[in-house]
Write a structure and sequence with these properties.
alpha/beta, Purple Acid Phosphatase, chain A, domain 2, 5-stranded mixed β-sheet, 10 helices, about 20% strand
């Protein structure tokens, strides 16, 4: 039996959250602030980087996918560079260990596998033993096969996520767009720029650009972690959850044309 779908009214508020980085509790606190269940005029855009750096990468993806399922047409999830790198590792050659070597203590991989599954992928049956008995390429292949075997639908969902979401007023994106292209930005911006553009752009543009990727303490003169607005067309919301334990939540009031922000964690 499927859940009944309530009629969707006009959008009154658009919320944005970015750079969850494997931190489930702050994400759940942020979703409580958005309150999609209690606010039929709310829409949510998640700007990517759901994995790496925190212990709950898999659970974060599952939470976002389930939130999207429960609120069809009201939740947009975009791809970030860390999500793209995870997929690139899964698709890559077994001898390419770069992403895996960057996964400190296999924290991201561990979030996808049970202790026994991890142990077997590492070449032993004891979940309490972390040292691999296998050479790097074989271990790499085993880990990728284990993730794909257990989470193929979830990873397929991740792979299908778009990289940009445009509204009448905003361009939501993980990192940024080719602003030098002006009105041709959508055709001119390569995929890797959408997820990896650096440094942050500032100043006026055709629409408001709402992005994550660049930690806001790098933009605020006082080094604070709140939402950063450049006074023109750019909003950056990556509050470095791995440092602060909190996520920034940006809200756009469609009728008023105004922004407000809060933090959750």
């Amino acid at each position: 039996m499927t859940d009944p779908v309530a009629p969707i009214g006009p959008t009154a508020r658009i919320y944005a959250i970015s750079d969850v980085h494997g931190h489930l509790a702050p994400l759940q606190a942020a979703l409580d602030l958005v309150d999609l269940d209690g606010d039929p005029g709310a829409e949510l855009v998640l700007l990517g980087d759901y994995v790496d750096r925190g212990p709950d990468s898999c659970a974060v993806l599952e939470e976002i996918r389930e939130t999207q399922r429960r609120h069809p047409g009201r939740v947009t999830a975009l791809l970030g560079n860390h999500d793209d790198w995870l997929l690139g590792w899964l698709d890559g050659e077994d001898h390419d260990l770069d992403w895996l070597m960057g996964d400190a203590d296999l924290m991201t991989v561990r979030s996808f596998l049970s202790p026994l599954e991890l142990a077997r992928a590492l070449g032993h049956e004891d979940p309490g033993s972390d040292a691999s008995r296998l050479d790097g390429p074989t271990m790499n292949r085993n880990l990728k096969r284990a993730l794909l075997s257990r989470h193929r639908p979830l990873l397929a969902w991740l792979r299908a996520l778009p990289r940009v979401h445009e509204t009448e007023q905003q361009i939501f994106v993980h990192a940024g767009v080719d602003e030098e292209a002006g009105e041709l930005w959508r055709a001119a911006t390569p995929d890797h720029v959408l997820t990896e553009k650096f440094p942050a752009s500032t100043g006026p543009f055709l629409k408001d650009v709402v992005a994550g990727h660049v930690r806001t303490h790098q933009l605020h003169p006082d080094g604070s972690h709140g939402v950063f607005h450049d006074g023109a067309s750019h909003w950056y919301i990556d509050g470095a959850v791995e440092v602060t334990g909190r996520l920034n939540v940006l809200c756009y009031d469609v009728a008023e044309g105004t922004y407000s922000s809060s933090t959750a964690g």
